[in-house]
Structures
1.
Amino acid sequence: MTNSRPSRLLIVDDNEMNRDMLARRLLRKGYVVKLAENAKELLERVKEDPVDLVLLDIEMPEVSGLDALQKLRNHYSAAELPIIMVTAKAQSDDIVKALDLGANDYLTKPIDFPVAVARIGTQLSHKHAQEALKESEERYALAARGSNDGLWDWNLSANVVHFSPRWKAMLGHQEGGIGNKPEEWFDRIHDADRERVKEEIAAHQKGLTPHFESEHRVLHKDGSFRWMLSRGVAVHDSTGNASRMAGSQTDITEGKVSDPLTGLPNRLLFIDRVGRLIKHGKRRKDQLFAVLFMDLDGFKMINDSMGHLIGDQLLLGVANRLEKCLRSTDTVARLGEAEAFTVARLGGDEFTVLLDDIKDPDDAKRAADRMMKALASPFILGGKEVFTSVSIGIALSNPAYTQPDEILRDADTAMYRAKSLGKARFEVFDADMRASVMARLQLETDLRRALERGEFRNFYQPIVALVSGEIAGFEALLRWQHPTRGLLGPSEFIPVAEETGLIRELGWWNLREACRQISEWRAGAHRHLTISVNLSAKQFLQPKLVEDIGKLLSDLALPPEALKLEITESTVMVDPTAAVEMLQHIKSLGIQLAIDDFGTGYSSLSYLHRFPLDTLKIDRSFISSMGDDGEGMEIARTILPMANNLRLDVVAEGVETIQQVAMLKKLHCKYGQGFYFSRPLSAEGTAALLAGDLTWQACEPTR
Ligand code: C2E
Ligand code: MG
Ligand code: MG
């Protein structure tokens, strides 16, 4: 930095005594001092050796100080070379002339030394500041000069800003259109950004940041906001206060608001447009607009199976078709406006459409319908036909919306509803949807708390050997003892627990508790009892699962064959190869494996032999439709012999009647589970059942 070396002063005076006296004192202040006797010598000195400041006597023979000043100023600006005039008398005429000619300041003889030192100091610190600024301007704004950037230069003490013509033009203004007050800038900054920008400036002025750099929106004359990157540096005076700040402004709107792949507006711009409509709508009650949120169905699969390049091409194709079809919709044609809609890409396979000015909700539905049709025909990508469909959620404007995110969120909620109702369709958001989303959120929170507070219970339902009527074991079924809603079954909370991943903790609790409980019962007179525990897909995928279970069993000294894990077909079919490996791993510990709800999923016995299974549980729906040679009977008739061939035990689920028991026995089904025997019971209820040691009449050999 310029500050680190001593400043060089040049004293020009024809009077030797004056010269020397001043020189000696300044030397003592740490300056490097050079001397010149007359104006001619002065000009040579300055040329041969750079000088930081000149003290120039006005009255000199031959060439006067004023003439010398004028000559110097032809080569050096006041910023580059500060000149302090020295005059014998307080001759205001001369002083005014000198200042006019570009002198920075003046001193009167006899020189009051402390005043002189102060004025020299001020001028030097200005000069250093200028140099620092120049240095930083070179660093930060050099690129700007040649390019399209605007420049600003803010004199903080005078509080005026010089905005370059380019800076003004970037905001749509002529040279005279913007004044030189800082407010001209700040008032144009977007409400949402203004405070932040001010803080960023303040932070830099306090020296907290090496330079000021900020991205924010600035109002253009045409009413739109442009994204600007503003960069600058502050210059500090000798007391450490920021005296000046200058920098550049770059228009980054393009990169900021458009999606690089499709060139469509991105989320930022979309939100911005929705925000403006919301503001507008507050004034114009009759104006309706709609946000359509759409998500490609199965895009991930296309991306994964065909590669990202094809995936990108598909997104591009979708973008094009959407724009084309909207341009030709009735809505837009009727209004005859070029910008009655905005298609944006939020990211991934999510697109949004803003319909600016619609007459009624049906317009939005028609648009959604058109969009779905436009995407129905196949895309030809990489020589292949690729089919895709979309799920669309529609949210209509309504005075309750104050933030763009709110309407976007509701459109998103409606989109999820469309997905869950089978995809390739649209749904219009309504208040009920919000209520169910809120309820779900509440449930999520409650679930976490319930785990912490130990509100879960295991219920146990006996699995009965059909021939002997004896209890072979139990299935552990989760219940939630809800503080206000009472005892809740798994359908009330398992789906949410699965989605949020909470099922891992919950499932582990259930497994641990079930194993602990069965150990206790087995320690009594029931050494043969097994415990069946449901395992969700998320648990099944946990790499440490087997290790954890192994440890649990050995801690409890529970023989592994006493534990039976129930998994559904869908769990293993996600990735059958990985599943085989996992199942074999579990099996290697000696734990038993059952397929739950058999018949409701892929129901293919043919793949089952690949899995190391012990048990098949036939889903309740087949058992309930078994009477009168119904469909269930057919299925049971086919499944049971095959299962027996595969040496799989079969458990019939949902056995409710004595007739069902009889039929199952005829078909050589080994086990039954259902209300006919017992509903799931609390731990105490189960203990009582075991103590009674009861068997079921109908199970005893009949006829
Ligand atoms: P599941 O594993 O198929 O359990 C059998 C379900 O059928 C139980 O419902 C049981 O109460 C019910 N059930 C048994 N016999 C009869 C009958 O005769 N008639 C009728 N109508 N129903 C009968 P529950 O307890 O409501 O459990 C439902 C499902 O929740 C279970 O189906 C299981 O998939 C899941 N689940 C329960 N506990 C857990 C758990 O700890 N972890 C996991 N991942 N899932 C669990
Ligand atoms: Mg089960
Ligand atoms: Mg089941």
2.
Amino acid sequence: MRKISQLVKVMAAVLFSLQMSSTFAQVPVYQNPKEPINKRVEDLLSKMTLEEKIGQMTQADNTAVKAKPEDIANYFMGSILSGGDSKTGDNTTKAWAEQYNSFQNQALSTRLKIPIIYGLDAVHGNNDVYGTTIFPHNIALGCTRNPDLVEKAARVTAEEVLATGSNWAFAPCIAVTRDERWGRTYESFGETPELAEIFGAAQVRGLQGASLAGKTSVLACAKHYLGDGGTTGGKDQGNTVADEAAVRKLFLPGYIPAIKAGVGSVMASYSSINGIKMHGSKFWLTDVLKKELGFEGFVVSDWAGVDQLNPDYTAAVDSTINAGVDMVMLPNRYVDFFSSMKSLVSSNKISIARIDDAVRRILTIKFKMGLFEHPMADASLVASVGSAEHRAVARQCVRESLVLLKKTDGVLPLPKSGKKILVAGSHADDLGNQCGGWSIAWQGKSGNTTIGTTILAGMKKAAPGAKIDFSAAGDFADSKADYSVVVIGEKPYAEGKGDTTDLSISKDDVALIKKMKSYGAPVIVILISGRPLIIEKIQDNADAIFAAWLPGTEGDGVSDVLFGDFKPKGLLSVSWPKSMDQVPINIGDANYAPLFEFGYGLTSF
Ligand code: BGC
Ligand code: BGC
């Protein structure tokens, strides 16, 4: 009898524990990938505290949390980014992936285990990280007139981004650049809305792949909304003066196909329209972007862009969140943001409905990306970073974006053997110079910054049978030659620092070309720049001129055309002014008389 009752007790205990464990094993709806996304979002949202919701709207820079990674968990952060100078360890893909995983583990240690999304400026390849494939900047890609190629390039970028764990690229920049003095001209596909429409959508498709859930898909971010390329004087973060109809005609069109292509995020612009800062514009962010255009993704602010709205931080947060910004790129002030948000909720200045809308948008994207199922970096992608296959795509972008501005019969293409070629100029053998800004460093930098092929190295590879002598300064022991190639242009720069009122070729470069011409051989000039330069002073001494823009790591693309393996085919994505008096100059202007028109480019030798 006693034995039986003991047995019953044991069996009851076993049954109880089985029941308990099956209760534990029952995953909540939001963690079940078989449930529809909207149900998962609502389930998760219903479980979240206010603090957890504010956390999802928070994006801190890597440098802000590096020393205190547990704050990712303490503040329930939804996102981390790396700004242009926010590096990790030795800046290799592997170091980035390790850091990403450790940050992700912080997020996954929280009660609800909501993964972070990690953003970075992969604007021409995964350009911040050492050893990646760096593509030409957008202004060059616009000259290819080849959206399929640009989509393919963005696919490559997506893989190289994901290899670091990062899963969000702050690209495409679909600025329509209207003033060459703007230091971000090169981030734009060109001066017409059509180029932004065609190439913006192509880059979105490439980055996000067929679906955000794809194994090699990263979240894209159309930026900077709205009117960034139209500021007076080309001033970065400046003011665009235009009536609503003009804004809709020039700057809005690019966003429409990008949204149709499913772009999951949009970045607000630092700039203003008619004096109203975009970070505080409910009209453009909520009424137009979200309601009228039906954008269902989320809006992220630009780096400390919120701070510019009001010296009182809480008031600044109030206006930006109510204007429609869903996630704030702080990048440092997460403690302030947290307390400002809490006080704005308790004073009823920000409604829970607005917060729920923001968080719903962010979570929807995270679910669509499959982040809850696959939160960690995919180590299998590391091998593809900087691979020959990837570099071949970049090389094709380089050769298709070269614009032949001037030629003299019989000079091009260069023969691959039997002749002597002098090569000169500060940009002939300098990888950093040919990559430009947003390359390894925020502002870019000169020198041997990463792995790649300089233009000089590309020439030597293409023409092993030619005798190629190089001197940056153009000093040669024997200056008698058959050809001279001079590679000159702008030194790297990015936002802010790149604004200028003088786009003339430097005095030194004018003198160098003159010197090379005096040696007697025909001079072929290759311009490396983020925008048209005033070439008046070199034109007479140059027998041929190419605009090679900022080609990135694959200098071979230049020799592909120089030595005649491919015909030049790039067509200008911007009008090329004769002089600074003509700037700004755009197709459709009254009295339009540039040196080279929009769409110009010689396509044979
Ligand atoms: C730039 C953005 C960039 C962000 C993050 C800002 O200063 O305007 O284009 O995505 O920094 O680096
Ligand atoms: C960051 C950039 C950012 C810039 C804005 C830099 O320190 O690295 O990503 O765009 O600051 O001022």
